[in-house]
Amino acid sequence: MRIDIVTIFPEFFSVLDVSLLGKARQNGIIDLGVHDLRDFTHDRHRTVDDTPYGGGAGMVMKPEPWGEAFDSILGETRPTVIFPSPAGEVFTQATARELAEHPHLVFGCGRYEGIDQRVVDHTASRAEVRLVSLGDYVLNGGEVATMAMIEAIGRLIPGVVGNPESLVEESHEDGLLEYPSYTKPASWRGHDVPPVLLSGNHGAIAAWRREQQIERTRRVRPELLSPSDFD
Ligand code: ADE
């Protein structure tokens, strides 16, 4: 997968050199390009923002640098361009699964009060455009949201996570929160591992884990449950 990021803070993304995603880049599974929006300005101050038409607080990102950045990144292949925004559709595991199938993702990280709307409208004429929110809260810009999305998407690309089975038994993969996990020692500071996990009875372990998933989901995220979860 090819991933391009346009940002005024390219240094944010140096963490993509490490861990599983860093390895995926070394192995050629993920090909990453980070682009400094200011490289597409032409004034001495490398200006990327201006005051909003109609008044109001804050600054808006100017369209011209974005247009030039996308001119250089978007080819003839119609990539998917994602603008992280609290005004977008909410990012879920289903979104991650869907985006993991795309060969080319481009993230446009806005700052300030956002990007001139014409950037979104014009980009939609040459790419699939999605406004995507991490959740109902406001970040200072799209960089942290982009990092979170790339991590969630990247780990679903075949070859990125060593043991693909570990992807199946995670929170949200089957619509429920995941069951609690334990490792050795069997007793620690007065807390014992649930005996069923030491029983060697695989049927009983699977049933216990399912119960735990449902109980946890009911307690913390009841809106995720559906009647079929109790079958
Ligand atoms: N930019 C600012 N807040 C955001 C959020 N909640 N999700 C995605 N991008 C954002």
UniProtKB/TrEMBL annotation:
It catalyses: guanosine(37) in tRNA + S-adenosyl-L-methionine = N(1)-methylguanosine(37) in tRNA + S-adenosyl-L-homocysteine + H(+). InterPro entries: Alpha/beta_knot_MTases, tRNA_m1G_MeTrfase_C_sf, tRNA_m1G_MeTrfase_TrmD, tRNA_m1G_MTases_N, tRNA_MeTrfase_TRMD/TRM10. Its EC number is 2.1.1.228. It comes from Homoserinimonas aerilata. This is tRNA (guanine-N(1)-)-methyltransferase. It is an enzyme of class 2 (transferase). Specifically methylates guanosine-37 in various tRNAs. Residues 1-225 form the tRNA methyltransferase TRMD/TRM10-type domain. One of its GO terms (biological process) is tRNA N1-guanine methylation. S-adenosyl-L-methionine binds at G110, L134, G135, D136, Y137, V138, L139. One of its GO terms (molecular function) is tRNA (guanine(37)-N1)-methyltransferase activity. Homodimer. Belongs to the RNA methyltransferase TrmD family. PANTHER family: TRNA (GUANINE-N(1)-)-METHYLTRANSFERASE. Its main location: cytoplasm. Keywords: Cytoplasm, Methyltransferase, S-adenosyl-L-methionine, Transferase, tRNA processing. It is found in: Cytoplasm. The gene is trmD. The keyword Iron does not apply. SUPFAM superfamilies: alpha/beta knot.
